[in-house]
Design goal:
It is globular and about 50 Å long. Helix 5 links the parallel strand 4 and strand 5. It contains seven helices and five strands. The protein is 46% helix and 20% strand. The protein is of the alpha/beta class. A five-stranded parallel sheet has the order 3-2-1-4-5, with helices on both faces.
């Protein structure tokens, strides 16, 4: 790839991907030549979905136009700035649902810039998804609540299957 490719990293656990994540990834793909979705995980913890399942959910949730500009990879046990360096990205894109997210993300953005100069771009999430988070979706689904429209259909089916076998 050429050095003048504008590449961004969108980090997260994506356990599972939500419609809010999809919104941010599609918008990031419109702004950058390539978006690396960095599925960050802690091998010492087991998530609801395996890393392979998460990667597949992300790849299949994106519309074709955005998917052409997105690559999904898993990373563990590393600083995000090291991931950025390794993939050749000088920008981190983070979606924000509100002020609480900003307060949480700002110190990390400042530390990342301090460490390597990588900048963080904050994209405000769509207001209709402000209440949607992976952890809240999983909790509602676990207790039989309806999360249709909050996650891609494939994720909804997988969450429902896990809730009925738990």
């Amino acid at each position: 790839m050429s050095d003048d490719i504008r590449r961004a990293v969108c980090p997260g656990s994506y356990d599972p991907i939500t419609v809010g994540h999809v919104d941010v990834l599609v918008r990031a793909a419109a702004l950058y030549d390539e978006v690396v979705v960095a599925v960050l995980h802690n091998p010492a913890k087991s998530g609801t979905f395996s890393i392979e399942e998460r990667i597949g959910f992300i790849e299949r949730a994106l519309p074709e136009a955005a998917a052409r500009r997105v690559r999904v990879e898993a990373f563990a046990g590393r600083l995000l700035v090291d991931v950025c360096r390794d993939v050749g990205a000088d920008v981190i894109v983070k979606g924000l649902r509100g002020g609480t997210d900003f307060a949480y993300e700002l110190p990390m953005a400042l530390m990342n810039r301090h460490l390597t100069g990588v900048e963080t771009v904050f994209l405000p999430g769509a207001p209709e998804f402000e209440h949607v988070s992976s952890s809240l979706v999983k909790e509602v689904a676990r207790f039989g609540g309806d999360v249709k429209g909050l996650v891609p259909d494939e994720v909804l089916a997988a969450l429902t299957a896990k809730a009925t076998t738990a």
